[in-house]
Design goal:
This is Acyltransferase family protein. The chain is of the alpha/beta class and 251 residues long. It has helices at 3-26, 32-49, 78-86, 103-109, 120-135, 163-168, 198-207, 228-242, 246-250; strands spanning 52-57, 69-72, 90-94, 113-115, 140-142, 172-180, 211-217. The longest helix is centred in the N-terminal third of the chain and has 24 residues, at 3-26.
Length: 251
């Protein structure tokens, strides 16, 4: 790493320390609105240090419903902070995230609900809480692929948590997410796949040229009379098409 990259790494570590201090000392004495404001602005600054610029696009000029289940494709650990920089959400994430250095604890204190992959009992345990949160007006979000995928692919969507939208009688609000370089091509440093660790991903991002995170807001999906598997399949098609992944749509 050169001097500038080392400086950026030190800034990230300092920002993480600020986040840890805020969660431990400030959050217990702050209401929900105050916590959401701090999470949003902490996310914005983290992305700025990593030289990730967020661009929200809405090609269909659709209006996001006030109550909805938010879903997106999953590329990187950055995804949570990209979405939070636009609107703070209560995320459902895989339990592995809790073990990430510093970030895992921050995600937990920021309201992330952890679920063990492949454990149906865990889905049942958190399901009613998700429905209650959505009905109360909280923004609940999850990544239905269940894991990160390399840019250029959209994995099959797991249908279980789509049931929460059906029970809460709210639409699904899909977003398509991609990371681009200065030429508008998919940015390779964003990929967080295979055996790559969080630390390795962070270093790759700090060493790489700046990137743009494009968050594409799609039209809400009506859930009336639908089945969770139909919702999952239809939402996947919409997201894959928005990303130009015709092969993924046909998969």
């Amino acid at each position: 790493m050169n001097g500038l990259q080392v400086l950026r790494l030190l800034r990230v570590l300092l920002h993480l320390m600020v986040g840890l201090w805020t969660c431990a000392v400030v959050f217990p004495f702050t209401d929900a609105a105050g916590r959401q404001w701090r999470i949003k602005h902490w996310s914005i600054k983290l992305l700025a240090i990593c030289r990730v610029r967020v661009a929200l696009s809405n090609p269909q000029n659709s209006v996001a419903p006030s109550r909805a289940l938010i879903v997106a494709n999953h590329v990187s650990w950055l995804d949570i902070f990209v979405i939070n920089s636009i609107q703070t959400c209560q995320f459902v994430g895989k339990s592995d995230i809790r073990d990430w250095p510093l970030i895992g604890w921050l995600c937990e204190k920021g309201g992330t609900i952890f679920i063990a992959r492949g454990k149906q009992r865990d889905v049942r345990r958190i399901f009613q809480g998700l429905v209650t949160s959505i009905q109360a007006g909280d923004r609940v979000a999850f990544f239905p692929e269940g894991t990160t995928a390399a840019q250029g692919a959209v994995l099959p969507f797991h249908a279980n948590l789509f049931e929460a939208a059906l029970d809460a009688k709210v639409p699904v609000q899909p977003y398509a997410l991609r990371y681009l370089d200065e030429q508008g091509n998919l940015h390779p440093a964003a990929d967080f796949i295979g055996d790559m660790t969080f630390a390795q991903s962070m270093l790759a991002i700090l060493k790489a040229p700046p990137m743009k995170a494009e968050l594409i807001q799609l039209a809400p999906v009506d859930t009336t009379g639908s089945h969770r598997r139909e919702l999952a399949a239809a939402t996947r098609v919409l997201i894959a098409e928005a990303l130009g992944q015709t092969e993924s749509v046909a998969a």
